[in-house]
Design brief:
The chain has a domain of 172 residues. The strands form four sheets. It has a three-stranded antiparallel beta sheet with strand order 4-3-8. The protein has a three-stranded antiparallel beta sheet with strand order 5-6-7, with no helix packed on it. The protein has a two-stranded antiparallel sheet with strand order 1-2. The chain is an alpha+beta fold.
Length: 328
């Protein structure tokens, strides 16, 4: 008979950090110490990655971009592709950029979209640069060569910021709820358990073997079965105590719905236009009326933003949009 051992406890299935970035840390705008340009107030790379955090946050800007493109009249000075790419930048980053292309006479012949992710405002007025990979020197444009369209920000007037910043926490909450649910199912549809043993017949070697077997069972479909034989043991020598029951205590669906509504609100879009399935037989109402109101309140104001480009273009090359057809 082996000697009695002291109580032992250890944990397994430790949680993993999924997202530990602070996109909403507003540090203001300052000159980069390694370059002659201003750093943006919000991480543009973080905003780009955030598009993949939530199904609705990732698709709504595409819908809004498509609505901008739908009513645009293609022009030799600005292609539809450049317009929709710039529109997407404006929605995601709160700003977009165009490069003026000139002919030999110094006249503007075309506007070309420049991705906003790596564009920076330089210290010199009306001059921008494009960050290069591998720590290469930024590509500086000539003063006045770049047109910047941006959202107004009360804290600074160098960069634009997107309108949805106030709803980022809801996007991350929705993502956290989804990731938690995924981990729950990958863990074997439970939140974990306490493997409790209280038997003097269990010697240290057997105890260590149990620890190794449990640790080795991590992964998809884990904790399926475990064989234990303790000669002379009692029925309650080994117990499995569940940590929690997600079916009774988890508010997954409620969290998903509330955070989804916040995402729709921060983008100012009706559920009927965001691909949401109605939960009642009445649906969301007349989709034609909803689309018309959305056009008047959201599409037209965004068109006005891009019509500012006409201030830089001669009369015969100005861009325009068509209007929504009137109802019969």
């Amino acid at each position: 008979m082996s000697k009695q051992t002291s109580p032992t406890a250890f944990s397994f299935g430790a949680p993993e950090a999924v997202l530990d970035t602070t996109l909403t840390s507003y540090l203001g705008v300052f000159l980069n110490p390694h370059g002659d340009y201003y750093a943006p107030p919000v991480s543009l790379t973080g905003l780009a990655k955030l598009l993949r955090a939530n199904a609705h946050h990732g698709t709504i800007p595409y819908f809004k971009r498509n609505m901008l493109r739908k009513f645009y009249v293609p022009s030799p000075v600005l292609s539809a592709t450049d317009l929709e790419s710039a529109g997407f930048d404006y929605l995601v980053f709160g700003m977009c950029y165009f490069q003026k292309l000139f002919n030999r006479l110094g006249q503007i012949v075309r506007l070309q979209h420049i991705p906003a992710l790596n564009m920076r405002r330089m210290k010199a007025p009306d001059q921008f640069c494009l960050l290069q990979p591998n720590l290469m020197d930024p590509l500086a444009f000539r003063p006045g060569e770049i047109i910047q369209l941006k959202e107004y920000d009360v804290n600074q007037q160098i960069y634009g910021v997107p309108q949805y910043l106030g709803g980022l926490q809801s996007v991350l909450l929705n993502e956290s709820a989804t990731l938690f649910r995924r981990k729950y199912y990958n863990n074997g549809a439970h939140m974990g358990f306490i493997f409790y043993t209280a038997d003097a017949q269990l010697d240290p070697e057997d105890e260590q073997s149990l620890k190794e077997q449990i640790r080795a069972s991590k992964g998809v479909g884990n904790f399926r079965s475990l064989y234990i034989n303790i000669p002379g043991g009692k029925p309650d020598s080994v117990k499995i105590i569940p940590v929690g029951d997600i079916t009774t205590k988890d508010e997954f669906e409620r969290v998903k719905n509330l955070s989804r509504n916040d995402v729709l609100s921060m983008w100012r879009i009706q559920p009927a236009l965001a691909g949401i399935m109605p939960e009642n037989t009445g649906g969301f109402g007349d989709i034609e009326k909803i689309s018309r109101v959305y056009y008047e309140n959201e599409v037209v104001p965004m068109q006005h933003v891009f019509l500012k480009l006409n201030d830089e273009l001669p009369g015969q090359k100005q861009i325009r949009f068509t209007e929504l057809p009137s109802q019969p």
